[in-house]
Amino acid sequence: MSYPFEPFKIKTVEPIPVTTREERERYLQEAGFNVFNLPSRAVTIDLLTDSGTGAMSDAQWAALMRGDEAYAGARSYERLAQVQRDLFGFPYFTPTHQGRAAERVLFEILLEPGDVVATNQPFDTTHANIVARGAEVLELVIEEAYDPTSHHPFKGNVDLARLEEALQGIPKPKLVLITITNNTGGGQPVSLENLRAVRALCDKYGVPLFLDAARHAENAYFIKEREAPHMSIRDIVRETFALADGMLMSAKKDGLVNIGGLLCVRDKALYDRIAQNMVRTEGFPTYGGLAGRDMEALAQGLLEAVDEAYLRYRVGQVRYLAQRLLDAGVPIIEPPGGHAVYLDVLRFLPDWPREHLPGQAIAVGLYREGGIRAVELGTVAFAKKDPETGAWIYPRMELVRLAIPRRVYTQAHLDYVADVIIDLYRHPERLRPLRIVEEPPFLRHFLARFAEM
Ligand SMILES: Cc1ncc(COP(=O)(O)O)c(C=O)c1O
Q: 99 CB less than 6 Å from ligand 1?
């Protein structure tokens, strides 16, 4: 498979650390075998996340200089507001410092204990912010999402029959929240057809529809490829958001910035409550916790993210890494999503007991072998202990995510990553079982410490 050339050239470079195996061994010990505890100076290729790790363009760096740091009504806010209106079309919005701030503010207003939020699948901070309100999450993604070998083109879609059943249930969901693309399920897209049907159900049952739109541009690219080739990316984006009553966005992904978020709504009364909450907790709603220069970079980044040549390269780069792994027989979630390649651990290490934390062992192995940082999204991230029996309840999928930062790594970097993974796949005896020795009460994978057995 050919590698799509980068639709940019490189104007500035950042050296990456090259370490020895002995150094990496020491770093792993110090980090308690949790890659979140590794200093970035010890990481050669950092695929921990695509969030806030992208490279800005020269136009974005230039825009920083235009930042108007007025507390209220800054020109930079007006510029961001203009781009928001042109691209997404919401009458009311506030910037936020990142996605989870938008989640917290919105859920503080909309959710009460006992409420239910219907989703395809929520991101883990979204889940945690819903649960923090005493509310409950329903995951209604289609069954194909749980089959890593299914080639369904829109594996982020909502199961409409289950959604309707939920909307007829008691309590009726307070909110329907659809994540585009579905990060938790492998960066898989949601189709326009599915979103239209979800909208119709929300209308029928009188429930608001919100989008978690962190990767809305990548979702639009898949729609163009697989559903609506006659539409432009911008028209797809416009139509996607026209279906929603509001959206939350971590702008650290398809905003092409290192920090920032958005919270957009149609309803004036809801916006007024958001604005009051923002003043108390995040900042006046014309800056929302961002510097004026951040808003300038974001306004420019949102425009660059919907450029089709950029998206072809972006999605193509992820596909290239996926194809190299597939060609060598390495099991991954197929088809690859928009921002990451996910190793399918249950087929990568079919004989490993899950209590030996095979996903975490692979994440540790990738670092030990090649200085590559990836993240486990399996037992460590999601398994719970049954409160009565103490037995583990495992998530349906055991994954290791290799998230590709935007506009950062080249083909040679991805070839190196593929070589290390393929080598490890062929030599699983190099992997060592792990056990948890320290864990926080929630969002365990960020802060736990492990020991090798
Ligand atoms: C789908 C989705 N929603 C929300 C968030 C949270 O955003 P942030 O990290 O900006 O707080 C993320 C972050 O990865 C995400 O992927």
A: yes
Q: Is 123 in the pocket of ligand 1 (CB under 6 A)?
A: yes
Closest alpha carbon to 360 in 339, 387, 384, 379: 379
Give CA–CA dist 286/75, Å, rounded.
Answer: 10
Structural domains present in the chain:
21-50+308-452 (3.90.1150.10), 58-305 (3.40.640.10)
Which amino acid is residue 56, in one-letter code?
A: M
Report, as residue numbers or ranges, the catalytic residues: 71, 123-124, 212, 214, 253, 445
The protein residue whose alpha carbon is closest to atom 8 in ligand 1 is 99
- Rounded CA separation 385/319 (Å): 36
What is the atom index within ligand 1 of the atom nearest the CA of 100? 11
Q: Which of 49, 248, 250, 445, when mutated, tests ligand 1's pocket best, judged by the most ligand atoms within 8 Å of its CB?
A: 250
pLDDT in tens, the chain (453 residues): 789 899 999 999 999 999 999 999 999 999 999 999 999 999 999 999 999 999 999 999 999 999 999 999 999 999 999 999 999 999 999 999 999 999 999 999 999 999 999 999 999 899 999 999 999 999 999 999 999 999 999 999 999 999 999 999 999 999 999 999 999 889 999 999 999 999 999 999 999 999 999 999 999 999 999 999 999 999 999 999 999 999 999 999 999 999 999 999 999 999 999 999 999 999 999 999 999 999 999 999 999 999 999 999 999 999 999 999 999 999 999 999 999 999 999 999 999 999 999 999 999 999 999 999 999 999 999 898 888 898 889 999 999 999 999 999 999 999 999 999 999 999 999 999 999 998 887 778 888 999 999
Among 123, 180, 216, 445, say which to mutate for ligand 1: greatest number of ligand atoms within 8 Å of CB: 123
For 415, the token pair is 């070839």
SS3 (DSSP) at 391: coil
Answer whether 252 contacts ligand 1 (Cβ < 6 A). yes
| 219 CB within 6 A, ligand 1 | no
183 lines ligand 1 (CB under 6 A): yes
Token pair in block for residue 359: 């996903």
The first and second tokens of residue 343, run together, are 């190793």
What pTM, to 2 d.p., does this model score? 0.96
- Say which DSSP state 172 is in: P
Give the C-alpha separation, 369 to 416, whole Å: 11
Mutate to test the pocket of ligand 1, among 253, 259, 262, 406 (most ligand atoms within 8 A of CB): 253
Q: How many residues does the chain have?
A: 453
